[in-house]
Design brief:
Strand content: under 5%
Number of strands: 0
Oligomer: single chain
Order of helices and strands: HHHHHHHHHHHHHHH
Helix content: 55-70%
Number of helices: 15
Distance between the termini: 61 Å
Length: about 350
């Protein structure tokens, strides 16, 4: 339990609760009159033009200035710390969104648990296979790609499978990450075909399912399901007034990872007014998306060209540097000259 912050003694004394109460009240009244007199005297004295008046004002003014200076300094420091903490938390949140939809989607209309029978043995087998895939087992990766279509309606996502899927999605191997996308779709009950796409396209219009649906659209596009149509749907959300929706659309486009989406994400990184969307675009162009190294190198040229642009904000410059680190493995920070030298010898 939280400690009780109210005063422990909230009762008032009765006037007849103890002998001598009247004497105590008398003493308090006398003290009060004395305090009023002292306050009156000290207030009037400066107004009478006494020598003390000129000395008091500067002292108070100096103390006030120093106090305001300290408050301003602390406020700026606190703002900087808050911004840094927000950036770290936001990055962590956006990384976690890679496995996007929570298990609550199962009761939201996308998948109703009572409509399909699940095989507990199929769930156990799928989890065993996911565990092997999460460790980078090539045979398990291929097996997931072959067998995950049979998981639809027989398996479900759980805290354990989410951990395993996240581990696979964080691997550098695009083959493993593609298998993890496919496994996620299967466990969400979404077939990678036109029927599955129609199902998710309806869900994206529901605000409570939108974040999940934007991510899932990207996964379907990556798996080859009507990729051009998926890109057009996602592009339609890039002008949404809500930065979180635009960021979700950027994540979906980064998962599709077609050549067309590279230029779209570069534009969002450079021109979207929201730092949240800018960060999402840079992250997806780096390690967060499903882009090949060749596609990433095409984006790197633009990011390096903007590195010393005065119109780029410090956060944008930092996100560009992090994306370039993901692409190159080089630690040049925001040194535009060093990045240009690297690019000219690597491209």
């Amino acid at each position: 339990m939280l400690p009780d912050l109210l005063p422990q003694d909230s009762q008032t004394d009765s006037p007849t609760s103890a002998p001598g109460a009247e004497a105590a009240q008398c003493s308090q009244a006398e003290v009060a009159r004395a305090l009023v007199k002292v306050e009156h005297d000290t207030t009037i004295a400066p107004a009478l033009g006494s020598p003390a008046a000129p000395r008091v004002a500067p002292t108070l003014q100096g103390g006030l200035s120093r106090t305001l200076g300290v408050v301003l300094y602390l406020s700026v420091g606190f703002a900087l710390i808050t911004l840094l903490a927000w950036s770290i938390q936001n990055a962590a949140r956006r990384i976690r969104s890679w496995a996007s939809s929570s298990t609550s989607n199962w009761t939201s209309g996308i998948r109703r648990t009572g409509t399909r029978a699940r095989s507990s043995s199929q769930q156990a087998q799928a989890e065993t296979l996911l565990q092997r895939m999460a460790t980078g087992d090539p045979a398990a990766i291929d097996q997931v790609l072959v067998e995950s279509g049979d998981w639809i309606g027989k398996t479900r996502r759980s805290p354990r499978t989410n951990q395993l899927l996240m581990a696979a999605l964080n691997q550098h191997d695009l083959h493993a990450r593609g298998a993890a996308l496919q496994a996620t779709l299967a466990m969400d009950g979404i077939a990678w075909n036109e029927a599955g796409l129609n199902q998710v396209e309806l869900a994206v219009r529901n605000p409570s399912q939108q974040a999940w649906a934007l991510w899932t659209l990207g996964a379907l596009g990556n798996r080859g399901v009507e990729q051009e149509r998926v890109v057009q749907i996602l592009k339609g959300y890039l002008d949404d007034s809500d930065a979180r929706t635009r960021s979700g659309a950027v994540d979906g486009l980064g998962i599709v990872a077609s050549d067309e989406t590279v230029s779209i994400l570069l534009d969002r990184f450079r021109n979207d007014p929201s730092p949240l969307v800018q960060e999402s675009a840079a992250r997806n162009l780096g390690e967060g998306g499903m882009y090949t190294h060749q596609q990433q190198m095409s984006a790197a040229g633009n990011l390096i060209g903007w590195m010393d642009d005065a119109q780029l904000t410090p956060p944008q410059r930092a996100w560009a540097a992090h994306a370039l680190l993901d692409i190159s493995g080089q630690h040049f920070g925001t040194d535009a000259t060093a990045w240009q030298r690297w690019y000219s010898t690597s491209h």
